[in-house]
């Protein structure tokens, strides 16, 4: 056992370090809050696993201890969190987002932890900054609430919080002269199943760092440079490029045995190749920032191609054929299935016959032809792969601004060098009509300067189209707007979309034909300079907003960026199984777990076949978010205070026999399920409380198991606490459990627990009186 205070001192002195194969800090604020609540209440928060070694092992940041030191294998997220909050700064080995743990406050009255919220906390002395508490003493805060009737109780609670540094962590150590990085990583993955497992890329990078500790930092500096230029990539992705250049292989394991000098050389070459591609994609295609750069996994193939022929992007005709392949590979989701297998096929094709081999291979996989059809523009979200194609056409084909009449190039626009996505038929016009579900059709999008977009506002196309054509003849046609005024009427909106899809498809075929033939007919190609794309989410339909917010939340939680509107094909037959709203082909964290699919239109997908192929399929954002949050809660220490336990914990012998209603009372179970969903909807409608985790539990484990887990948790759920704050305990699961209709579903002990909780929190409604 080791006291937390001693562990923090060891981290401070450099005795406890972090091995280089550990990824950075990935926890979010909810996990931080749950950990602090658990340790404050004395709940178990898991043990630590250390590797005691005196060997020269790569550690994060290149920090070295003196003599024998301990490498933290399991417990990085917990110890980083506690060190940062208690010491007021992250440890030296920290790499991540400090916002995850900054400004945590504790309420001495409710004993709740929450991050700083000025409107809620300003002027309320009951909220104490946790880091400031550890930097001073509980008695320093006493004068602020000394006149309160519960002042002594508040001081006692602050003392209890300050004493968490005496918490004992169970600590296991592995030692031995035969221990090396490979063996230790294997041990780490075995014991860390509840936490963040290492991906295949992490393992390969660990081996590289063992040979040259500065490798990870060098790679991060390259990523930071691209981030500053508007492109966001991951360590795994960069390693994929370096592996392609070094070995021409898709598997990271091919790097085993490579010297540090050879890998460093391959890494620098891959960075040069990526720079060359980004210059070509920006200058020739107008794909000049993260939001519109598609087909990330096609880029390692281009890195491989450039390693074989460094001049492949220097000749304009050859460059255009490379870009032709890249666009089609991205549009058709070339790497959305078995990524490594497809990459290896393309690496080999590039080696055998260069870009012509890549094009031939892609054509064969698409049935012998590469073409663009009007139907390709039928998607209804910005996540579609054809959304970047629309932006690309706008940039390269001389599309003109409706307000100024200028072509949408940075060199032409001058100070107006930012574009905004514009709804041609505004949402306000379509919202209440029969076409509201098609407001976010790609064919209803175009790009304008912000000034023009604001001036047009919510005008009817019949009104502003005529004005545009009068001021700037040809501007409408340059944006592929059908010129028949009859199609500008809202009643003809579906016909307008179909006509514009035809025009967009024709423009795409012409441009891609120019690329395949090796340049524009004149032999001259334009070079574009970057234009900032500004998107306004205010006009999005609720479904698009929900999906985007889910993806942003998952990325904050350490998940990878998914493919959106991704076609998933059966590997045996080639049949399309789904067009998923979001798809993580390598798992939510790269290389970890099974592929994950978010498919909201499950009736239009072959969900059963996806599951047979070992995909994790979710049919609602809340179910997916609930799944991720529960994984994080388990990683936070196996029983955070605000989370239900993973398994119900019977409190007495009376609970050992749980009623089995499933055997003969299906109608009652269905009624209870409906009641649970109504409680969720009423909480949303009447109390303004969204409960995504609750909804996710309903989807994943069912209504009855959800209720039992919440009842048997050692502390009230977040949902219960939030509804109590809103004065609506009648909307809790506890209140529903006490409804006489559902008595056969629960034990007397469970009913007693539900009643006791409600009464403790002051609820005296009819439900609490049962029994």
Automatic annotation (TrEMBL):
InterPro entries: GmrSD_N. Residues 5-206 form the GmrSD restriction endonucleases N-terminal domain. Residues 635-661 are annotated as: Disordered. Pfam families: GmrSD_N (PF03235). It comes from the Bacteria. This is GmrSD restriction endonucleases N-terminal domain-containing protein. It comes from Streptomonospora litoralis. The lineage of its organism: Bacteria, Bacillati, Actinomycetota, Actinomycetes, Streptosporangiales.
């Amino acid at each position: 056992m080791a006291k937390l205070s001693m562990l923090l001192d060891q981290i401070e002195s450099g005795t406890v370090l972090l091995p280089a194969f550990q990824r950075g800090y990935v926890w979010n604020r909810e996990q931080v809050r749950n950990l602090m609540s658990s340790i404050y209440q004395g709940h178990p928060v898991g043990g630590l696993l250390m590797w005691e070694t005196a060997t020269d092992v790569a550690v994060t940041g290149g920090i070295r201890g003196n003599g024998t030191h301990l490498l933290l294998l399991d417990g990085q997220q917990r110890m980083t969190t506690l060190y940062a909050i208690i010491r007021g700064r992250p440890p030296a080995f920290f790499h991540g987002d400090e916002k995850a743990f900054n400004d945590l406050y504790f309420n001495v009255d409710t004993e709740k932890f929450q991050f700083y919220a000025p409107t809620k906390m300003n002027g309320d002395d009951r909220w104490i900054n946790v880091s400031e508490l550890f930097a001073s003493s509980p008695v320093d805060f006493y004068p602020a609430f000394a006149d309160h009737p519960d002042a002594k109780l508040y001081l006692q609670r602050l003392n209890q919080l300050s004493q968490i540094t005496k918490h004992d962590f169970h600590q296991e150590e592995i030692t031995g002269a035969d221990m090396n990085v490979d063996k230790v990583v294997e041990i780490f993955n075995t014991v860390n199943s509840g936490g963040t497992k290492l991906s295949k890329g992490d393992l390969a990078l660990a081996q590289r760092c063992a040979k040259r500790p500065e490798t990870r930092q060098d790679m991060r500096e390259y990523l930071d440079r691209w981030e500053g230029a508007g492109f966001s990539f991951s360590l795994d992705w960069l390693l994929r490029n370096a592996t392609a250049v070094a070995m021409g292989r898709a598997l990271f394991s091919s790097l085993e045995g490579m010297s540090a000098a050879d890998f460093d050389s391959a890494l620098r070459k891959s960075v040069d190749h990526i720079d060359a591609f980004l210059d070509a994609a920006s200058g020739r295609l107008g794909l000049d920032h993260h939001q519109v750069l598609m087909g990330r996994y096609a880029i390692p193939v281009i890195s491989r191609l450039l390693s074989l022929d460094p001049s492949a992007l220097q000749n304009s005709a050859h460059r255009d054929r490379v870009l032709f392949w890249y666009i089609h590979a991205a549009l058709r989701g070339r790497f959305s299935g078995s990524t490594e297998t497809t990459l290896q096929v393309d690496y080999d094709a590039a080696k055998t016959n260069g870009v012509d081999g890549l094009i031939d291979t892609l054509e064969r996989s698409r049935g012998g032809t590469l073409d663009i059809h009007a139907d390709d523009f039928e998607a209804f979200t910005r996540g579609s792969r054809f959304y970047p194609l629309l932006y690309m056409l706008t940039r390269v084909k001389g599309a003109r601004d409706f307000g100024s009449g200028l072509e949408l190039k940075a060199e032409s626009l001058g100070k107006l060098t930012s574009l905004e996505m514009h709804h041609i038929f505004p949402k306000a016009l379509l919202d209440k009509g029969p076409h509201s579900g098609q407001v976010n059709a790609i064919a209803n999008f175009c790009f304008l300067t912000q000034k023009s977009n604001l001036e047009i506002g919510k005008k009817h196309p019949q009104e502003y189209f005529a004005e545009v054509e009068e001021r700037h003849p040809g501007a409408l046609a340059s944006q592929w707007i059908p010129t028949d005024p009859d199609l500008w009427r809202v009643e003809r909106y579906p016909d307008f979309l179909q006509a514009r899809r035809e025009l967009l498809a024709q423009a795409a075929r012409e441009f891609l034909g120019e690329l395949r033939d090796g340049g524009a007919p004149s032999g001259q190609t334009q070079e574009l300079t970057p234009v900032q794309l500004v998107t306004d989410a205010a006009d999005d339909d609720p479904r698009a907003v929900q999906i985007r917010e889910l993806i942003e939340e998952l990325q904050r939680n350490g998940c990878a960026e998914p493919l959106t509107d991704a076609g998933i094909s059966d590997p045996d037959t080639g049949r399309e199984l789904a067009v998923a709203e979001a798809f993580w082909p390598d798992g939510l964290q790269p290389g970890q777990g099974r592929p994950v699919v978010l498919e909201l239109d499950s009736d239009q997908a072959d969900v059963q076949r996806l599951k047979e192929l070992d995909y994790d399929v979710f049919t609602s954002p809340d179910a997916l978010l609930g799944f991720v949050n529960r994984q994080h809660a388990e990683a936070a220490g196996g029983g955070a205070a605000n989370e239900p336990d993973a398994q119900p914990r019977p409190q007495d012998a009376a609970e050992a026999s749980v009623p089995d209603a499933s055997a003969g009372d299906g109608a009652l179970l269905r009624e209870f399920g409906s009641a649970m969903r109504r409680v969720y909807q009423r909480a949303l409608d009447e109390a303004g409380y969204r409960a995504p985790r609750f909804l996710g539990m309903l989807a994943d484990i069912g209504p009855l198991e959800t209720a039992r887990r919440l009842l048997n948790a050692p502390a009230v759920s977040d949902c219960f606490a939030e509804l109590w704050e809103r004065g609506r305990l009648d909307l809790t699961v506890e209140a529903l459990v006490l409804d006489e209709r559902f008595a056969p579903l629960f034990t007397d002990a469970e009913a007693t627990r539900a009643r006791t909780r409600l009464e403790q929190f002051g609820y005296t409604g009819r439900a609490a009186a049962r029994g």
